[in-house]
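Sequence in, structure out. Go.
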Amino acid sequence: MSDITVDSKQYLVKEEPYYEPVGNEVALYEAAYNARMPMMLKGPTGCGKSRFVEYMAYKLGRPLITVACNEDMTASDLVGRFLLDKDGTKWQDGPLATAARIGAICYLDEVVEARQDTTVVIHPLTDHRRTLPLDKKGELIEAHPDFQLVISYNPGYQSLMKDLKQSTKQRFGGLDFDYPEESIETAIVAKESGVDKDIAAKLVQISHRARNLKGHGLDEGISTRLLVYAGQLISKGIDPLAACSMTMVTPLTDDPDMRDTLDAAVQTFFS
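Output:
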């Protein structure tokens, strides 16, 4: 056990997150959770993967522990380490160990950002063993019956240097995510930002033009998240042209010609 007591209630999602299903992903995930199947969510930036996990944790009534993965993350950051204090040393569980003990859903966001020698620590938790060895402590954690591991990543950012090993991929069930169809995305933007549906529809149409430029000057299209940001500014009284420039153009590219192209798309709908 960790030397520090953990209250699992702090990890519960207190209020229902707004999530608009786009297919049968809710039913598929529920079935996967009932089987305690590790899950992999794949999709572009800002399409709703993290919101979906929050929604499902709320719906299932399970604690949720989220880890934002990065290339400097070590195995100890996930499983735990000894810490010094005035009385000597204490063991501090990492988020993965904590989730395994208390029966939480552990969500590793953008898992390909972590080094492959770090992600291999999840292997014993994602097969029939459902265990987590704490080598430094000499302990073997048997995962709580309610524990589930979920990972996510953006396939568009994969490379030979940043990809999951096949030995890792084949431990998970997978769900593909993409930006919602126009009517659903319009409803999401209107609900999340507070603008009316006419303005939300214009923002979505701008995003479609930008997404068509992916691979033709843009690495990534305008995400649903950025559309919500634009709508939130507009709902606060900011001029739509300025709001769109701030949230949908400037963050996306530094190329002057591409910015002009995106600005022209915005001006087509807000002039």
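Check: The chain has eleven helices and nine strands. The chain has a mean pLDDT of 93.
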